[in-house]
Specification:
The protein is an alpha+beta fold. Helix content is 57%, strand content 7%. It has 2 domains: 4-79, Glutaredoxin (3-Layer(aba) Sandwich); 85-195, Glutathione S-transferase Yfyf (Class Pi), Chain A, domain 2. Strands 2-1-3-4 form a 4-stranded mixed beta sheet, with helices on one face. Bound molecules: glutathione (GSH).
């Protein structure tokens, strides 16, 4: 099968759609919703976890947004790929770091900020959750970005896309990142890219 990305754009599928848009690839997008559609037998045959995103490229079927993006970078090259093996390992490090150190707190804070899933919208409480749950990690990222434009090597890569993709939850939730100015500046640089803008537009129009 030709390269196919499953998952509606306003979900973690955003990350893999951003990757294929950044790479300028021809791909099929199947906008599977993460509620009922992802639990249908035809989708479960692709991703038995019933979650999005998933990717099919020829004989390869993958789930997990970070893994999909690392594969796309290695397979399809610039601007996401990383030549140096040590830097590629650093991209894997930052990708794991994003999903283990940031993601669950960011999700909770986004729900609180926007009043989703039965919560009352409370931006102040959301930012408290952010500071408490992610303060240490965001401090680490902020110090890493001091004097650097990009996470790994000298240019934008899959490392930036994966971590900035996780931090899209903070942007969507309008969380206050001003305590971490290097992180804020770097996120702006990442989201200013045409690939990111195109994917944000896909997410906007899918929300309706
Ligand atoms: N670790 C997975 C998480 C995927 C995930 O949980 N996606 C959500 C949508 S944002 C989903 O499909 N939820 C449906 C469910 O949990 O049943 C990844 O990064 O790809």
């Amino acid at each position: 099968m030709a390269l196919t990305i499953y998952g509606i754009a306003f979900s973690r599928a955003f990350r893999s759609l951003w990757a294929v848009n950044e790479l300028g690839l021809d791909y099929t997008h199947v906008p599977t919703h993460f509620m009922k559609e992802s639990k249908q037998p035809d989708y479960l045959a692709v991703n038995p976890n019933g979650r999005v995103p998933a990717m099919v490229d020829g004989d390869l079927v993958l789930f997990e947004s970070m893994a999909i993006n690392l594969y796309l970078a290695r397979t399809y090259g610039a601007p996401l790929s990383i030549e140096d093996a040590a830097d590629e390992a650093r991209a894997v490090q930052w990708s794991f770091w994003g999903v283990t150190e940031l993601e669950s707190t960011l999700l909770r804070a986004m729900f609180t900020s926007l009043g989703l899933f039965g919560e009352e919208a409370d931006p102040e409480k959301a930012n408290e959750t952010l500071n408490k749950g992610c303060g240490r990690a965001l401090g680490v990222l902020d110090r890493h970005l001091d004097g650097r434009d990009w996470l790994v090597g000298g240019s934008f890569s899959v490392a930036d896309l994966n971590v900035a993709g996780v931090l899209n939850l903070a942007r969507t939730g309008r969380l206050d990142l001003s305590r971490w100015p290097n992180v804020s500046g770097w996120l702006d640089r990442c989201y200013d890219r045409p690939g990111a803008r195109k994917t944000l537009e896909m997410a906007r129009s899918a929300r309706g």
